[in-house]
Amino acid sequence: MTERQLGFDTLAIHAGTAPDPATGARQVPIYQTTAYVFRDADHAAKLFNLQEIGYIYSRLTNPTVSALADRVAALEGAAGGIACSSGHAAQIMALFPLMGPGKNVVASTRLYGGTLTQFSQTIKRFGWEAKFVDTDDLNAVEAAIDDNTRAVFCETIANPGGYISDIPALARIADLKGVPLIVDNTTATPWLCKPMEMGATIVVHSATKYLTGNGTVTGGIVLDSGKFNWSASDKFPSLSQPEPAYHGLVFHPTLGGMAFTFHSIAVGLRDLGMTMNPQGAHYTLMGIETLGLRMAKHVENAQIVAEWLEQDPRVETVTYAGLKSSPWHGRAKALLPKGAGALFTFALKGGYDACVKLIDNVKLFSHVANLGDTRSLIIHSASTTHRQLTEAQQVKAGAAPNVVRLSIGIEDPADIIADLDQAIAKATA
Ligand SMILES: *Cc1c(COP(=O)(O)O)cnc(C)c1O
After folding, report:
1. Which ligand 1 atom is the nearest neighbour of the CA of 91?
2. Average per-residue pLDDT in the chain?
3. Domain end point (choices 252, 287, 322)
């Protein structure tokens, strides 16, 4: 008999978290400990050799943190994964086993502002490079992948412009070229989209956003499908050849579908130390219990608010893929049938000055550099999150000076609309 597949909401509550074996505690305890006592010298040696799985030191693994990684892996349909200290840490951790000096990642031009900066500036210090392409131009994506490319990177719903990536098409190209597709699934969450079912190899998350859902944690997740053949070429020597950073262990194929995950723990977390703390993991685990309920309300509210804004004569444009007017409406329907997320931008008549006035007059909305909170959030990307970019880059990233970004919360939609209505009135008076 085959085992019943548990549904999303059941996994969101139960995956990774059986009752605590020591005490029976039903909620996942916060294992606030740095180290774990070895049974004996032989046990310790086996753990260090990866011959037996267990806990050594919390920079590498911790039961609370592992429970979080296992739960998100279950929700995304991944073979394994790690939790780490932030979404940005997750991106470096995802690239780390794949890249090396002189290697590049082909990345979408439409990404979170912080990621554009991390990729265009900071990773250069490691000798890594990002080649940015318009991922709607599939020929350009294919042409950009060269002998030194080690991954393709996109976001499911690109923050902030409401752009939907064609994940199946990008996965096909990456596959053809023998490199993994990495998808940042932060703004969709696995409730709206499971990129691995569409061919992605690696999924990264900022757990700071919808997964935790209430603005209390900074965290990240890296997940691996376990299906990529790292040994098919000589492109990924850290995985397919003796790894000098781990006494010559050949991670793939030795560790099979867990090669990437074990490398991320045994070398990545060990040496880069971008570890999540157990208390943060506990909060995120609690947040995920209601992910399905929250996402349903987020997308329902976002659709209502976007439709209201679109018919308002004081508003120039609304970029939400849930609207028929969006160039990505059809793709959203095909790839995200449950909704196009809860993050979008709109342009106000009156440009930059009106946007700033709007921000200064909202009462229910919080003016913060965050998204994916139960609360409705607002920000003027061009003067904040996307400030370090040139105006051309801002426009390309969907953060032109005349647009405001909304992250629609799960309050009563009438109250969200009333707040926008009064603030728009003041901004455009
Ligand atoms: C916030 C965010 C990140 C970065 O995550 P942090 O947890 O803030 O480091 C990366 N990608 C997307 C899409 C985000 O929204």
Report:
1. 10
2. 95
3. 287
Give the CATH number for residue 401: 3.90.1150.10
**Taking residues 381-402, what's their average pLDDT?**
79
* Residues 273 and 348 grouped into a single domain: no
If asked whether residues 334 and 221 sit together in one domain, one would say no
Q: Residue of the nearest CA to atom 1 in ligand 1? A: 206
> Does residue 405 line the site of ligand 1, with CB under 6 A?
no
Distance 88 CA to ligand 1 centre (A): 6
Residue 418: is its pLDDT beyond 70? yes
155 lines ligand 1 (CB under 6 A): yes
* CA dihedral over 160, 166, 168, 173, signed as positive or negative: negative
Res 50 pLDDT > 90: no
Give the model's pLDDT for residue 393.
77
CA of 371, closest atom in ligand 1: 15
ω into residue 253 within 30 of 0, thus cis? yes
Distance between Cα 17 and ligand 1 center (Å): 26
Determine if ligand 1 sits within 6 Å of the CB of residue 88: yes
Q: Is the CB of 218 under 6 A from ligand 1?
A: yes
pLDDT in tens, 268-284: 999 999 999 999 999 99
Distances (CA, A) of 292 to 8, 43, 162, 176, 215: 8, 41, 21, 34, 17
Tokens of 146: 């060269």
Alpha carbon dihedral 279, 28, 211, 290, in 10-degree steps, equals -130
What global pTM score does this model have?
0.96
